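Re-run with default settings, no changes from the original entry. Doing this only to confirm the output is reproducible before filing.
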Amino acid sequence: MRDQRRVVLVTASAVGLALLVLMIGLGYDQLWVPSRPVAKVGAVTLSRRDYWQERRSAYAHQIVQNFQLLALFGGSSGNEQFTQQFSNQSPTLNAQVKTIRTSAVDDGVVNQWETLQIQQQGAAQLGVSVSLDEINQAIANDLSLIFIPAPAAPITATATISGTATAPVADATAALSATPTLMPTSAPSTPTPGGPSPTPAPTETLEPTETPMPTPAPAEAVTQVGQIVDEIFRRYELELAAASQEAALTKEDFRAALVSQYQEQLLNTRVEEKLVPDAGFVESSEPAKVKARQILIAVTPPADASQDQIDALFSNAKIKADQLRVDLHGGAEFVGMAMAASDDPGSAAAGGDLGYFDKTGHADNGATYPPELVATAFALAPNTVSDPIRTQFGWHIIEVIDRDIPARDTQLRDARTKALDTWIAEQRAAISSERFPAQTPTPTGGTETPTVVPTYLPGPPTEMPTPTQAQVPTEAATAVSAAPQTPTAAGTVISATQVPTAASITSPTATSTP
């Protein structure tokens, strides 16, 4: 009997110990780990459980973005590149969702959470907030046309011809037609004697204009958001079914992703309006870009020339430049003179046209112009010819053709964007933030050579790209553009023009992509 009690006691102890170990393991995995902090902004802490949800929202956001891109650029629009790039991506992302708990913390997701917290806390200090009703209305306005199926067209009742009456078909047709069909007509024209009759010009077809969607009432917006989420989830499940996968995300994950995205967008808009009110904004008359022509009198000193020799070459070239300036003042046509006298073959072939360029010298055609030329161009009034301008290439005479002054709405938008960026940087500095574990700061010392920002460098004049011969870069051209470029008198081509690809499109919030 005593041995039996001992066996029972030992067995019970072993079972109890096993249960205790199991409970400790479950507590660690289900309570301790999810409660551990990942980051903190102000008084708000991002626990690991919260991080997992943020990660799920990031995957859901990427899936929604793929569906949007397919609706806008792929599918029925016939863009096979976008269709191949973004279709059937849900299974890949769905598989990654299942590894969230075992994967390393994604800094991009944490950065996005920190930015949103900084915006929310800073906006609260400005007295700016966004309601859930406003968020739902914004979602419905933006996404209803993409994700809410159009209602089926109503069935129009048609008359039924019965019996054996032998009424003429034409009469029956006329009776059933509600609206007569208008046949196209052409105005009578007088035939040319001895020649064929002229063909009437076709009437231009007017394209329909898009009618802005009215903002739905809050209750209607809630209904539409539910329909949008249902349709997103339906497309998500269809792609998963083709890959024989079960959904790892829920409808609430997609709803949370949309709410987070539009909350940030609306907060940004409200803060921008607070920082730069429309009523107090003063429109600038300064151009953002100018368009100009040039005549170059090139100076190419030998590599071993002394400074005195270089100055002498520039002095001799200045005589010719001054004479050209006199001729232009006397009424000579700038375009013709540029084609005949300019030493820069690229711009000379186009009558000296340099295209539009901004205050940094970067032109729409991909070139970069000397700072002396740029400063003079922005100081000139339209249709004004400059005095000769000395650069490392020689003497330039320029004529400003146009000054591109942005519209007031564009200026206001740019000013608000700049003010918002400054405000976010100030809030980031003012509001405390932490990471757990603390991030190791990137070392700033050492012998590593810092990256040098490309600057304008001297070089011989060579042909610049003309506006009428734009070309799509090939792989070889892209490889060449990756090498250091020598600037020219017409301008330094920093890189080949890039053709937008599906890979170049990013999500609305840069750090929300998982």
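DSSP finds 15 helices and seven strands in the chain. The longest strand covers residues 394-404.
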